[in-house]
Amino acid sequence: NQVIDMAQSVPPGDIATQPGTKIVFNAPYDDKHTYHIKVTNSSARRIGWAFKTTNMKRLGVDPGSGVLDPKEAALIAVSCDAFAYGQEDTNNDRVTIEWTNTPDGAAKQFRREWFQGDGMVRRKNLPIEYNP
To answer: How many angstroms separate the CA atoms of 84 and 53, rounded?
Structure first.
């Protein structure tokens, strides 16, 4: 008999990312690039968030997950390691942020389980554009 957590039965509210639609890296690609994204919790509830990338070898996200109180913001570093531009397929490169409401009364510490239960998870894709 599971107790349904009220916070997790409500769809998560909106987040804002700056930039809002995509991440752009500029050549040359013979060195590591780092781009900062600001993630703001626009909703009225505390959320847990986690980033995923389509290319773990090339793309890194630090920190990769966390917890944000309402109206709180975090600065996330997205890094792109050096690679052979034009010789590797970069068309599908993107980072995805997923977020969900944290259970009522939970400590402000990220837990992977929040994304594995019945709670609703929202996603936002940020495609990566590489300028030659």
So the answer is: 19
Residue 48's CB: how many other CB atoms inside 10 A? 26
CA distance 49 to 77: 14
> Which residues contact residue 106 at a Cβ distance below 8 angstroms, ignoring those fewer than 6 apart?
none
Which pair of tokens denotes residue 37? 């994204």
Q: What is the pLDDT of residues 82-119, one digit of tens each?
A: 999 999 999 999 999 999 999 988 999 999 999 987 77
Is the previous residue joined to 28 through a cis bond, with omega within 30 degrees of 0?
Answer: yes
Helix (H/G/I), strand (E/B), else coil: 114? helix
Helix (H) or strand (E) holding 7: helix 6-9
